[in-house]
Amino acid sequence: MSKGHLSSGWAATPVGAVTETVAAYDLGAEEYSQRFASVDFQRYLMTFLNELPARSVVLDAGCGPGRDLARLSNLGRAVVGLDLSSGMISCARRAAPRAQLANGDVRFLPFAGSTFGGVWHCASLVHLSPPDVTRAVTEARRVLLPNGVLFLSVASGEGAEWRPAGNGRRWFHYYRLSQLIRIVEQAGLVVLSAAEEPGIAHGKWINIFSRKSA
């Protein structure tokens, strides 16, 4: 399927796209979990952990089947996982039994402000167009403690497309590095590092570490 380029780089996520994407994940949660189980974000996880306030809790926002949630938990960090897909939450519960889990939307986080020392957003914003990513990053900043750290990883590219997934389909939006830096900075976060890099699993990805000022 070719990419359907948006008429505007800041167009909203299509109506129903999130619901349809979540339904596809619910149907394919087990397959997805197995497919990406071996993807190793250790380098990014360690950088993330080294930047966090001491003894703070981490939110894995869009935790999927719990791969990174489990690794953070196994490294001794108190973690909370959130995902809009109930199928993914079921997988995450098995992968990270010590983690707290919540079924929720990254655009409307069900947590009080200044709760987490870090928010880990790894490939969890790829299904949202820029206005919704802006909302999600603003929400991440709200729930971060002062000096808390946000990690973002999204697919690099232009435009958006529907991609088939088992018995359904999923909506994907692609970003430029400058575009995502602008979103992060406009949300009131300080960029620590930002780069377009080869993806660990495939393609090119934008990886950004940022901090909420004290």
Polypeptide structure, described:
It is a single chain. By secondary structure, the protein is α/β, with parallel strands linked by helices. The protein contains six helices and nine strands; from the N terminus they run H-H-E-H-E-H-E-E-H-E-E-E-H-E-E. The chain has a single domain, classed as 3-Layer(aba) Sandwich (Rossmann fold), CATH 3.40.50. The chain has helices at 17-35, 42-51, 67-74, 86-95, 130-143, 177-186, and strands spanning 58-61, 79-83, 100-103, 116-122, 144-155, 160-165, 168-173, 189-198, 204-212. The strands form two sheets. It has a seven-stranded mixed sheet with strand order 3-2-1-4-5-9-8, with helices on both faces. A two-stranded antiparallel sheet has the order 6-7. The longest helix has 19 residues, at 17-35. The radius of gyration is 16 Å and the shape is globular. The chain starts with 16 loop residues before the first helix and ends with a strand. Residues 1-8 have low confidence and may be disordered.
What is the CATH top level name? Alpha Beta
Total DSSP E strands: 9
Gap from first CA to last CA: 45 Å
Approximate shape: globular
The ordered string of helix (H) and strand (E) elements is HHEHEHEEHEEEHEE
Assembly classification: single chain
The CATH topology, please? Rossmann fold
Low-confidence stretches: 1-8
- Physical arrangement of strands within the biggest beta sheet: 3-2-1-4-5-9-8
**What fraction, in percent, of the residue positions are helical?**
25-40%
Q: Treating each run of at least 4 consecutive H or I residues as one helix, how many helices?
A: 6
**What count of domains describes the coordinates?**
1
The CATH architecture category equals: 3-Layer(aba) Sandwich
- The portion of residues forming beta strands comes to 25-35%
Over the alpha carbons, how many angstroms does the gyration radius reach? Answer: 16 Å
Mean pLDDT, rounded to whole units? 92
Main beta sheet strand tally, sense and closure: 7 strands, mixed
Supply the helix-strand structural class: alpha/beta
